[in-house]
Amino acid sequence: MDKIQIDGGRRLVGEVTISGAKNAALPLIASSILVNGKSTFTNVPNLMDIVSIQMLLEDLGASCAFDNNTLTVDGGGINKIEAEYELVRKMRASILVLGPLVARFGHAKVSMPGGCAIGARPVNMHLSGLEALGAQITIDHGYIEAKADRLVGNEIYFDIPTVTGTENLMMAAVLAKGSSVLRNAAREPEVVCLANALIEMGAKISGAGTAIITIEGVESLHPARIDVIPDRIEAGTFMVAAAATRGDVLIKGCVPDQIGGIINKLRATGTILEVGENQIRVQGNDIIKSIDIKTQPYPGFPTDMQAQFMAMMTVAKGNSMIHEAIFENRFMHANELLRMGADITISKGNYAMVRGIKRLQAAPVMASDLRASASLVIAGLIAEGTTVISRVYHMDRGYDGIEKKFSSLGADIQRI
Ligand code: EPZ
Fold first, then answer.
1. What is the pTM of this model?
2. Residue 15 forms beta bridges with which residues?
3. The dihedral of CA 292, 297, 300, 304: what is its sign?
4. Which residues have CB under 6 Å of ligand 1?
5. pLDDT at 273
6. CB under 8 Å to 114, separation ≥6 — which residues?
């Protein structure tokens, strides 16, 4: 079981290039199920989750090849419509094969993804959306079974914006008979990236990136070559790390327009940001002003950045109220930060009052989920002493070579 060891107290200085977005690549790879042919995806990050979804698709009969951040997937060989529990339990995003399988084959059996550390993560909106498109849904012995001779377009209203729910139903609707409208749809850039890819494959979609997405069903799709957008959460993670270490870092290959929520909040802490065409320079300030944060669907402040910001607020001047309004249990990192001397009070499950202290002290800590591990890395970078983080497999799911990137910025960080 790998661990990460960090000697804190160094400023991050230099430049780092952002990898492709995990949360864009996963639905894109699932969309190749819709196509009888070989699709190519470039700028694919080298992550455990990408390996997991390749294994899942190969188990279904597709053939995948990954080389130098380019992934080809041939959906032509798919001869199985069941996504096994053993594969799905490794990665919840496996639910993204449900829509495409029903759309192309009229039948799918996918293991219920189950919860994870940050919450119950129900998929009720995915299922009610598929029922609206005419699928018969049954849940039996932990498996979702969906059947439809052919899906028929319809109106679908999401109670709350769901990212993978929007993506799943967009992929189901593109081959349905007639048109569909997704209302209260998620507006994340990863949803737009998927819509653009499906359009490239011959789908008829308008409104992606807004709350109302209209899809005109077509008979079939053809293979395409798709470029994965940069990972806005990885960019945000390095921006917060640069600010927290009072460093000076140029984040290259990012899309500033997609991280407005993060830029706005970082500026409020007194951090200096120079925003370029596809890069951002972040200069930390000695005094970090404390700010309040509420996580929201895009374009609000992203929940995937909450843990990283909390690490920075532990050493801000003043108190910071953090309201995690998306997931019901996304404060596990707080318990570990407390062990490093942070002053945090959790109330009513999703409010955290962080009282700034002078400095964190290094301690052995444990990662509980992907973004919590990033939070502990940032804490280790600013703490006094040597921090050792265990269970870093969580981090390997979503960050491509993170310790190499941090050490190239001057951090004393190594995998042990
Ligand atoms: C996506 O998860 C991301 N994962 C998550 O990133 C991200 O935190 C989340 O969106 C929110 O931005 C991928 O894209 C692979 P949701 P998703 O459906 O789609 C509730 C990371 O760190 N809900 O938008 O599963 C749900 O419980 C991961 O990279 C229902 O109640 O999130 C949550 O409270 C973590 N019923 C809220 O909606 C449903 O059917 C938003 O969840 C679906 C969701």
1. 0.97
2. 250
3. positive
4. 23, 26, 93, 119, 121-126, 160, 162-165, 186, 303-304, 326-327, 370-371, 398
5. 98
6. 89, 92, 121
